[in-house]
């Protein structure tokens, strides 16, 4: 039997000292879905991403990705399985070129062996050329190829955010986790980002989970939305259901306006 289920989070929780940052969270994602994870500041959204990517080990519950239990896996092992992410605070290699930032991500998965790289055997050059070509193709999709030799730190802010996504994609994930991709963007940049997310999802056959405070973006592109508050899921449903959910409205009172 083939299953459409890609990610399953069952009764997951984590405790830091006395603080239950996340508790009893149940979520699932089917292949190809674009799902939002929202909630007020400190609700546990990034902590959930950290558990999905092996940065933190849950103290309770089970996370299964593509039929495999993620328990005990390190972040690089989770990336290899097919989960990539971006960070709330941009984490690029600021003193590397735009091209090298993407190549570093691609490199982790490169097929040629370490030995052939060290001794610069013909395989290494073939691998390197292929990686250059692939990485430039990625950059084109993001409108970043014109900046390929620029240092990442010199890119305009909105472009740095795009480069983060390009870099996450270079690792060839099945599941892409975006942590506040529109943070700090102006409305026009956010609009372009929405188009880009829709495009890459289709182009790369991705499943996407995104954390975002920009409700226009979340409501505009997500099919389903999970809402966290004080570490617990208080709602899940379509954008329309979430917009009208009294618990959600209450959690957000005085924080944001849900359009
Ligand atoms: N390593 C840690 N040690 C102790 N407490 C932590 C740790 N990581 C997160 N927390 C706490 O867990 C709670 C949830 O934080 P988290 O960053 O996941 O919230 P968030 O929903 O992503 O918030 P924001 O929207 O502001 O980014 C907070 O109270 C935070 O202080």
Automatic annotation (TrEMBL):
<dbReference type="InterPro" id="IPR003593">
    <property type="entry name" value="AAA+_ATPase"/>
</dbReference>
<dbReference type="Pfam" id="PF12399">
    <property type="entry name" value="BCA_ABC_TP_C"/>
</dbReference>
<dbReference type="GO" id="GO:0005524">
    <property type="term" value="F:ATP binding"/>
</dbReference>
<dbReference type="InterPro" id="IPR051120">
    <property type="entry name" value="ABC_AA/LPS_Transport"/>
</dbReference>
<dbReference type="InterPro" id="IPR003439">
    <property type="entry name" value="ABC_transporter-like_ATP-bd"/>
</dbReference>
<dbReference type="InterPro" id="IPR027417">
    <property type="entry name" value="P-loop_NTPase"/>
</dbReference>
<keyword id="KW-0067">ATP-binding</keyword>
<keyword id="KW-0547">Nucleotide-binding</keyword>
<feature type="domain" description="ABC transporter">
    <location>
        <begin position="7"/>
        <end position="255"/>
    </location>
</feature>
<dbReference type="InterPro" id="IPR032823">
    <property type="entry name" value="BCA_ABC_TP_C"/>
</dbReference>
<keyword id="KW-0813">Transport</keyword>
<protein>
    <submittedName>
        <fullName>ABC transporter ATP-binding protein</fullName>
    </submittedName>
</protein>
<dbReference type="Pfam" id="PF00005">
    <property type="entry name" value="ABC_tran"/>
</dbReference>
